[in-house]
Structures are given as structure tokens and as C-alpha cells.
Fold each of these.
Amino acid sequence: MSVQAKIVAEGAKTTNPKVLAFVEEAKALFKPDAVRWCDGSKEEYQELLKLMVDCGTAMWLNPDKRGNSILVRSDPADVARVEDQTYICSVKKEDAGPTNNWADPAEMKATITKLYDGAMQGRTMYVVPYSMGPVGSPIAGIGVMVTDSAYAVANMHIMTRVGDKVWKALGDSEDFVRGMHSVGYPLPTPKTADVPWPCNSTKNISHFPETREIWSFGSGYGGNALLGKKCHALRIASVKARDEGWMAEHMLILKLTNPKGEVKYMAAAFPSACGKTNLAMLNPTIPGWKAETIGDDICWMKFGEDGRLYAINPETGFFGVAPGTSEASNLNAMRALDENCIFTNVGLTEDEDVYWEDMTKHKPAHAIDWMRRPWTPEADRPAAHPNARFTAPASQCPVIAPEWEDPKGVPIDAILFGGRRASVVPLVTEAEDWKQGTFLGSIMASEKTAAAADAKGDIRRDPMAMLPFCGYHMGDYFAHWLKIGEKGGDKLPKIFYVNWFRKSPEGKFLWPGFAENSRVLKWIFERCDGTAEAIDTPIGKVPTEDALDTDGLDVDDSALKELLKVDIDGWKAELPLIREHYATFGDKLPQGLREELSQLEKRLS
Ligand SMILES: Nc1nc2c(ncn2[C@@H]2O[C@H](COP(=O)(O)OP(=O)(O)OP(=O)(O)O)[C@@H](O)[C@H]2O)c(=O)[nH]1
Ligand SMILES: O=C([O-])CC(=O)C(=O)O
Ligand SMILES: [Mn+2]
């Protein structure tokens, strides 16, 4: 029996017949040595860490530097989400839409059943009850996940609310997401040796939106294995949200307080690596203004009794990109990493602390890279994998807002869309209304690298930053946004389009970004109150030069002009690209967005 299998079954903690049937079915399929009903306790978390260390999956970091934290190095072939092996298995192909891989649900289940058969031999199957959002909140949702990965369970402990309180909240309800996960590395005989990071070269991350199921195989990493995150909170939840009239979005949530003590809440959708975690934790540079974090990645919004949209962060932790995170770029994130964290695929220093690119001013003279090889600053490879991640409890963030776990959620005043655009898109634009805002979100795009930034058309459209995460046809998703617009009317948040990444012809960022983005947030705050000045342009309202607070800012006038300029020719050149993008959605593209596009065309000519 493996070390893992030594954790013995403790018996079911619920009498919910649907849960019991689900677990029995999973047990029959996976054939684990033992079943462990997780209770979410601190003791259980510590036991999981110790187990991972005993198995060679993890090592303890120096307790004086990173208390109670571990370093995990994954298999080099299992380091990120696998979009090409991720499927939306809706009954009808057209419901998955042109931007998702589709497979027939019955056929896919037959395929994965073969992979699942006996996949947990020699291992423990953990049963993990979790709540996305404060337990019992009317905006929250429950999931039950079975997995053979202690790493996945420990991460779920940080990222979600795991525990017996979830069984209590669920009662006998059928309203929960069923997630099955196996790393796909059975230990069929007591002699079969385990490996530090078990996984399988065949990977499959399948979603069954109609039945609210997730079947994941072969990967232990992040979004493939922590089923509460992208699989549940975005892909399945987006479908549930469409059916029930709410929103599940890839957005940070932040609280901004002005010098008078007035508060506004903002949500912002930026694609991966476009600054959500950074904006969610920024320290404003303008005197008297305060920013606090509610969430850094996912936002669920429902209408409150007053007709406004209320948002919760369904998560309880940050699964953030490590490289580039430093005291200079994100001090609050660094403080959240002081203890009780899981570090995956970062470098290891001689004194058993973590290291990644741009973490400190001075590089360590010697380290061990994420592939366990000796590393020095002269090495022509990074110490950390570019997608190395930290898992940190949100409660450890020094600027977490006191109301971040309020079951009511927080009323959203403004929604921001943004991407990396070297040209064309101004620093900030306010949409005329929700409909035009939806249009701006639907045409959102981002450039991949600085080197390719100037190449024409070298941009990936990533509507609402949801391209890899929308669980249904994106044309229907746009229609859902417009429907929310009709329902919410003038109580809805204002929508803004931001771009921190505009560049000079020499390829330099025109805007300092990071903490200085607070100046843009201030303008947005004041637009919500109707006080800040704006001018109408063909694409929406942009700040007058005086309206943006630039006191003490090190940006010259010509750069500022360029940042706020609406590039008419650039936008005209964008029109055929938008049309091409829209053509992919065929008949499902809502009429309202067609209208927005033709109105933009008219205003530009
Ligand atoms: N120039 C510039 N770069 C920024 C700014 N904010 C963030 N970045 C860069 O964007 C990268 C990604 O930032 P994150 O905050 O981790 O992005 P994210 O959206 O949370 O990414 P995911 O966790 O993958 O969803 C960082 O390496 C920063 O260098 C900004 O205001 N200006
Ligand atoms: O899901 C993951 O693995 C990490 C993540 O947050 C993203 O890719 O946006
Ligand atoms: Mn993300």
C-alpha cells in the first residue's frame, strides 16, 4: 500500500443520497485503496503537506523565511492549463460554439471511463466538499470533487472553502457541481513505485455543462486539477449563470475609497498576464485614496433586491503568477507570501527560500531551478518556470477588504475591460451605456509579446477575457450580457475600456502603470459620480487633459496627449478585423452588437 493509501477512510459526512451515489460510482470506477472524506480542518491540511513531503512531491521551505510553506516541482510536461485538450461536451455541438473544443457527451464519457477505470489503484480517493463563495451566501455555489491528488486537495483548501459546513449548507439538495479528477497514475501492485509528480501523457479536461459535471484526467496542475477554479467557477458557472440570470466572470474585484471616505467597487476583466492581480492589490499614488482587494481572478454577480449587481469573490486564495512579482511591483502580494503558501515550479535558494525572475534586486549567486538543476545568474534559462505559481490565502493580503467575505457581496459601480494594446486603444474610455460597453468587451484584444506588438493583426481577440473560460457559445454569451443590460437598466455599473500598455514608436510604455493606475481609477470613480470631465469621441468618452489627476506624475505632455488620443485611422483599420472576429459567431452574434459596430463605423467616417 502506498503512503497515500495509508490514510484510511473515515466514513461519509453527509447523508445526501446524490452525493453518496456519486461517490460510490466514482469508487467503483477508480478502484482506490481507500476513500477519505475531507473535513477542511487545519489538521487535515498539515497532514496533506506532510504526506506530500513524505512522498517526495514537496519539500519544506526554511521555516524562518517561509513559515509552514512547501515547494513543489511538477513534471516538466505538466506545467499549465491544456487548452487543446479542454472540452465543452454540451449535448448540441452548436452550444459549445466556435471558440471551444466540442465532443459528444456520451462518447466523451465512454472515452474517459476507459481512462478512469482503475486509475486510483494503490491510492486514496479524497472526497472534497467545497463552496465557491461564503458558505450559504445566495451568490455562492457548491461543488463536490473526488481526486487522487493530495496536491490538488491542499490547494483546494487554500483556494476554496472546504469542510463539513458545506455538507450542512448543501443538505439534500441536488444543486452541486460534480467533479472527478485523477492524475492517471495508478499503483496497481504494492511494488509499483510512485513518482514525485504523478501524471499521464494523455490529458483530458472535459465539462458537461447541462449536467454540471467536470471530468479531468492526467494533469495535477492548476486550472486542470483545482476544479473549483476555471472548470467550476467559470466554465460550468457561466452556463448556470446564463440559465439563472446572473454573471460568472474572469474579473478582479477592488474597493476604492476617496479622501472623503466614499466607496466604490470595481470589477475588471483582463486576459491572463495583463495585470489583474497587480491592479487588485495596488497602493494608490494619489494622496488620500485607498484601494483594497476583494478578489484577483473570478467574480460572480447577481442582482440584489435594490436592482443593483452584487459581486462576490468565489475564491479564498490567490493562485498567482510568481515571476515578476516583487516588493517593487506588488508589495501586498509579496506580504501575502510570507507564510502558509504552496510554491509550484519556482527556484530554490541555498537557504531554502524561493526565487523567481525579478523577485529581488539582487539575484542569488546559486540556486536550484524548477527542474532541480543547479542554477546561477549566468545560466541561459530562468530559475522559475514562466508559469510558476504561488498559492496564498487571501486573508494574508495586507489590503484585503474587511467585507471580502460578506455573503451579500458588494455592489459594483464600474466594470473595466482591458488588454495589452501597443496602439489604437486609449488609456481609458467610458462606454456611453451598457450596450456599447458590451460591444467594447466583445472586441477586446491583447498582443502577445512586445516584439510582435507592431505587427498588424497580430492580436488575439479575447472577449471579456473569457475566451478559454466560457462554457457555451460566445455569441449566446454576448446575448446574455445584453439581456443583463435590459434587466438592470440605469442601476447597472458603468463600463470602461482601459489600456495600460500603449507604446511610443520606439516601443516604450507611455504609461508608468502599476500603482499609477490609481489615477485612472480616480477618474472612473468620479465619472460614476458625474463629477469628472470627459469629451465625446467616436468610441466613447475619454478624459479631458485636465480631468486626469497628474499631480506629481512623471509623464510628459506629449505622452499624455498620445495616451488619451483617439486614433481615428487606427480604429478605421480595426473595423475589418472586428468584422472578421464577429463573423466567427455567425447567426449567434446578437443584433445589438451588429448595430454597435455599424454605429461606430458611421461615427468614424
Ligand atoms: N506595463 C505594465 N505592466 C503591467 C501592469 N500591471 C501588470 N503588468 C504586467 O503584467 C504581468 C501579469 O500581471 P498579473 O497581475 O499577474 O496578471 P493576471 O491578469 O493576474 O494574470 P493571471 O493570474 O494569469 O490571470 C506582470 O508580469 C506585470 O509585469 C501595468 O500597469 N503596466
Ligand atoms: O487556471 C490556471 O491554471 C491559472 C490561471 O489563473 C489562469 O490561467 O488564468
Ligand atoms: Mn486568471
Amino acid sequence: MEIIVVDDYNKMSKRAANIIASQVVLKQNSVLGFATGDTPLGTYKELINIYNKDDVDFSNIKTFNLDEYYNLPKDNDQSYNYYMSENLFKHINVKRENINIPNGMCENIEEECRNYENTIKESGGIDLQLLGIGRNGHIGFNEPDLKFEATTHLVHLDEDTIKANSRFFDSIEEVPTKAISMGIKTIMQAKKIVLLASGAGKAEAIYNTVKGPITPKVPASVLQLHPDVIIIIDKEAASKL
Ligand SMILES: O=P(O)(O)OC[C@H]1O[C@](O)(CO)[C@@H](O)[C@@H]1O
């Protein structure tokens, strides 16, 4: 694992955006894996700035998002479809048909998960996967568990995650309790992984990810086994290392 400690959130975001932009410059038809949450918002802003300066062309990329809430319509302003559109996709020249996000409104979950995995494979696999991390060490929506869930699957969200995500909803009752998420194997098959974390609230998760035992109780700890991971964190998130 390469660990890059930067001063603050803005520097973390710039560093991550530069890595993603370089990936696309070097391989125009890159397959990019994107994440949601607060952490990558600055990275997406920086990527839009880079795009507006004409420094990178996204017209040949394909994208796959890590996860989507189950049973939340795409046009709900808390869906990850909506988030990605508002915070990145509508500002750059990615082709709509090249955007993939699990369909949380699907009728057949198993079929949706299978199709999502197949579409990733048919695209040649993910070249670069961006990740945030939950305070409990989750990546995507792979919550702490007794085993690593391999492929795209339906997840029952932890109480902690539901509480953390309630800040985006009017009340905790409105927070979806399930989601469709790439599995650990899906994430681990990405050729390159960039994990971001900012703030003291993530310090313990980062410590456990980098220095702790590899265990499904800290899903991100499996990244110790990946050959090409860059962890970009600010000083506060690095404070327990
Ligand atoms: O970046 P945030 O908002 O701290 O979220 C961390 C993690 O939690 C999630 O938002 C889901 O709970 C993930 O998508 C993200 O990686």
C-alpha cells in the first residue's frame, strides 16, 4: 500500500483528481469505479475543473459505481444516481450509455447483481476504483461481517451506517436500510485502487485498514492484499498511524 498523507481535504481531493485524470489521459477508454459520500465530493469538483480547462476528455470512459440504495427511485435526491449526476456526470462529457450504477429499483435482485458483475467483466474490468471508507471500515456498502461478501449483492445496512447517512435525510426513518453493493472480490479485481479519507473520525478505520489484521470485521483491511492501492489521507485521518 502506498500511503500519502496530505495537509487537508483540499490537497487530498487535488491529489486524487490528478491521479484519475492521468489515468484517463494515459488510457482514454479507461473503466473507472466511482464512490459516493462526502469524501469524494472535492475530487469530483477538481475533476470538473480539470475538464473545464480542456485537459482531459472523458468521452471514451466507462464508469461503474460501487453501490446504490435499494428501493429508492433514481430521481430521489438522495439516490446515488442523482448524486453522481449532480456532482460529476452532468458536468463532464461522459456518455450516458457508458454510466453504470446498480439499479436499486430492480425487480429481481439476483439478476441485477449478476448482470452488474457481467457488465464489469465485459467492459474489461475496472482500471481504477475510487473508494471512501466508513467509520466502521466499510468499503462500498460492505459492512463488517463474519465473512467477506464476494460479488455484487444486497446488503442490510448497519445501524451505524444508517445513523451516519441520516444526515442527508429529513428523518432516520427515511434512510433506506438496504443497498446493492459491489462485493469485496469485485473491488479487489480493480487494477488500481485509490482510497480517500479525511478527518479524525476516520483515523481508527484507517489504522485498522493499514495496520490491523485482515478480517471481514474491517472490510477495508482486505486491501492489504491488493498489489496497487494508494491511500490518500489528511493529517487527521492519519493521526493514529
Ligand atoms: O465519505 P463519507 O460520507 O464519510 O462516507 C464514507 C462511506 O460511507 C458511504 O457513504 C456509505 O455509508 C460510502 O459510500 C462511503 O465510502
